[in-house]
Design a protein that fits this description.
0% strand
């Protein structure tokens, strides 16, 4: 029984990046108002980017492990000693999950370039990254105070982030604007 739990846990960790890319693509389709079947969009997104997304997701594992280790020192060292490392770990995780994975879903580049572009965009656009950080802290507070919010808040953040990213990509000329239905 224990080995089955390890296998299931490991498979969930390995596929977390690809699952996030699928969720991003579904939200992007929703934000753009494109009509497509849920299953068709999900399978296409999975096939197109599961390798890159899995690698990027696995890059988040050591960062998260450092964050957990740092957090475990909180009772002995105090908040003042672990606050800066926790903020750095949180920033790296946010950049990997909210900048690098959407780029892997949206654009076709080698994996190292997706990661580099995600970190570059996240660090050179501090207003968007700071806004994302505020949303993630508020989401954490909401989930901490009302546990059933864990079923709604991540989806709301993902849809909101997809909306901001699509506006950002169009404004910078990375993608062309979607034509209206009347055109």
């Amino acid at each position: 029984m224990v080995s089955l739990l390890w296998v299931v846990s490991l498979s969930l960790v390995v596929t977390a990046g690809a699952g996030t890319v699928v969720a991003y693509e579904l939200c992007r389709r929703y934000v753009l108002g494109k009509d497509a079947g849920f299953w068709a969009v999900a399978t296409k997104a999975w096939r197109q980017s599961w390798k890159q997304a899995t690698v990027i997701g696995l890059l988040a594992l050591p960062v998260a492990a450092v964050g957990i280790l740092t957090f475990s020192y909180l009772p002995t060292l105090g908040l003042s000693q672990v606050l800066v490392p926790l903020i750095v770990v949180g920033l790296f995780l946010a950049l990997l999950i909210f900048w690098c994975l959407p780029l892997a879903a949206r654009f076709t580049n080698p994996t190292w370039r997706q990661v580099r572009n995600g970190f570059t965009l996240g660090l050179t656009k501090p207003s968007l990254t700071f806004l994302l950080g505020i949303a993630l802290v508020l989401a954490g507070v909401a989930v901490w105070n009302f546990m059933p919010a864990v079923f709604v808040v991540p989806g709301l953040i993902l849809v909101w982030w997809c909306y901001l990213l699509e506006r950002f990509f169009v404004a910078r000329g990375y993608v062309s604007p979607e034509p209206d239905a009347a055109d």
